[in-house]
Write a structure and sequence with these properties.
- With 509 residues, the chain is α/β, with parallel strands linked by helices.
- It has ten helices and 21 strands.
- About 3% of the residues have low confidence.
- It is globular and about 95 Å long.
- The longest helix is centred in the last third of the chain and has 37 residues.
- A hairpin with a 7-residue loop joins strand 9 and strand 10.
Length: 509
């Protein structure tokens, strides 16, 4: 879809503009396009309390029910109640890896559709397209699929041999792009767009709306494949932030972090491997961080037989570590990394052996992971020009490690530069950077509307949901609230019209 530049303010206002075309934006577009969830006539949920609540109004869609009431008593792996509710409805007993059928049935009701626009820098799928180069697969378990199209079935149609229910990030990116076309959503998507400003304006009619401005990449007519960036501007009653938090890598803020051998992206590791700059003969790689991306880096180097030092600030047993929250059966690779972190730890006051020459063997049970050593409860103090990294553990004891490459993979921050104050005023802690785990945006738990900015919503990683499995709840909450707002607005307009007619009437004797 090509957008245009508006020179003057008008009353041509969209009900909703979604900034971000990843799985969050795609799922919300699906719900706003008239696809409506109901309790199936023969639907059954294993949670008896939830099943009884759904059975109270079997003919009402989920959009027309009290989400807060349905959320009561439903527990799951998210801190957002609607995310837990929708996950429980789409994937009953999903935590146990059980493929239990959903009690929901989807009906297409075009009369419910809410006009909207989805803006994204690349093709539908968002950051998943940037992950296409990854050599690793992610567990399916239906966690990454969107309503109405089974990911397992789609993957099975694409290739003959499906092992362990797994798919590559490239396949997932392709699935999201296919989903948009399959569900007829493409007319709502304007790709190749970079949003530069979102702010409120007053129209000539006196209405206050959101003005969204930016640039859209377009091919120049008659000039081959060259592209030009064309300004655009649209107005909306509501804006949804679905940008994710992967734009700006988090930094340690220590001396030497800008040295050439210090990287902040997993893809820089892949590039070093592909170019031959990193191999089994290289000095060890230092991986800093204890998230899934850091685990991917450990696995990549380990498969290459490049020695790995692994430093992270928390103890291995910390329940907040993502590894302690993932089912072992569904994520065997990450469970392996967690074992490495646990079994081959550097011990305080011991001399660090050069992993290039002396592979480490765990003395506890004989399990061997050659060329790996973890440093729990350590932080980086300094990166030195000669390739030495200084770590500091408990008690202030410092250790210097000689490395060929340092990967700082401690998360990332959202790029909300198109908002006033970079959106910091919307976060729980306005003085801190916005992040998925530590400082998400402050939203109403049942509508996902920003507490400090009515008419602006946020979803996905911006509100603490890193898994596609749970971000779908944000789409449900936002769609329900926008539908409720529009219904209230129509009722108010009807009442005003009736009142006006009555006031203009004269009684005849």
């Amino acid at each position: 879809m090509e957008l245009c530049k508006e020179e003057t303010l008008s009353d041509d206002v969209l009900p909703v503009v979604i900034v971000g075309n990843g799985p969050s934006g795609i799922c919300l577009s699906y719900l706003l396009s008239g696809h409506t969830p109901y309790l199936s006539p023969d639907g059954f949920h294993p949670n008896p309390i939830l099943h009884n609540k759904l059975s109270e109004n079997p003919n009402l869609s989920l959009f027309d029910q009290d989400l807060e009431y349905l959320c009561e008593g439903v527990e799951g792996r998210s801190s957002n109640p609607v995310a837990v509710l929708f996950d429980a409805l789409l994937l009953p007993d999903g935590d146990f890896g059980v493929d239990c059928p959903s009690p929901l049935v989807w009906q297409y009701e075009p009369e419910r559709a809410v006009p909207h626009l989805v803006l994204g820098k690349g093709p539908p799928g968002g950051a998943w397209h940037a992950m296409e180069g990854s050599m690793f697969t992610l567990s399916l378990a239906n966690w990454m699929e969107l309503p109405g199209l089974k990911l397992k079935d789609w993957v099975r149609d694409k290739r003959r041999n499906v092992r362990n229910d797994r798919a590559t990030p490239a396949e997932i990116a392709s699935y999201y792009q296919h989903y948009v076309n399959k569900m007829g959503l493409e007319k709502r998507f304007a790709c190749g767009t970079t949003v530069t400003s979102v702010h409120q304006v007053s129209l000539d009619s006196g209405r206050t709306v959101w003005k969204i401005q930016g640039l859209q990449r377009r091919s120049k007519v008659g000039e081959g494949q060259e592209e030009a960036e064309v300004p655009f501007s649209v107005h909306a009653e509501n804006v949804v932030l679905a940008t994710g938090t992967h734009d700006i890598p988090a930094r340690l803020g220590v001396q030497g972090e800008n040295l050439p051998y210090v990287c902040h992206s997993f893809w820089e590791l892949e590039a070093a491997i592909s170019s031959g700059h990193l191999d089994c003969a290289s000095e060890p790689v230092l991986v800093v961080g204890a998230g899934l991306t850091a685990a991917d880096a450990v696995l990549a180097a380990h498969h290459l037989n490049t020695p790995v030092y692994h430093a992270f600030r928390r103890p291995v047993t910390d329940p907040g570590l993502i590894f302690n929250q993932l089912p072992k059966v569904l994520y065997p690779e990450y469970h392996k990394v967690h074992q490495m972190m646990s079994q081959q730890q550097h011990k305080m006051n011991e001399t660090v052996v050069n992993l290039s020459n002396h592979p480490i063997v765990s003395p506890a049970d004989g399990t061997s992971y050659p060329g790996y050593l973890s440093f729990p409860k350590h932080r980086v103090v300094e990166f030195k020009p000669d390739g030495k990294c200084v770590l500091e553990g408990e008690g202030g004891l410092q250790t210097a490690l000689q490395v060929s490459m340092a990967l700082v993979l401690i998360g990332s921050h959202a790029n909300l530069s198109f908002l006033p104050e970079d959106g910091h005023s919307l976060a729980l802690e306005p003085e801190e950077p916005i992040s998925c785990r530590r400082n998400p945006l402050d939203v109403d738990p049942y509508t996902y509307e920003c507490v400090k900015e009515p008419g602006m919503y946020a979803m996905g990683p911006l509100v603490g949901e890193n898994f596609v499995r749970f971000l779908k709840g944000g789409a449900l909450a936002i769609a329900c609230d926008i539908v409720r707002k529009r219904k209230t607005k129509r009722q108010s307009a009807t009442e005003n019209c009736v009142t006006s007619l009555l006031n203009n009437c004269t009684l005849e004797a």
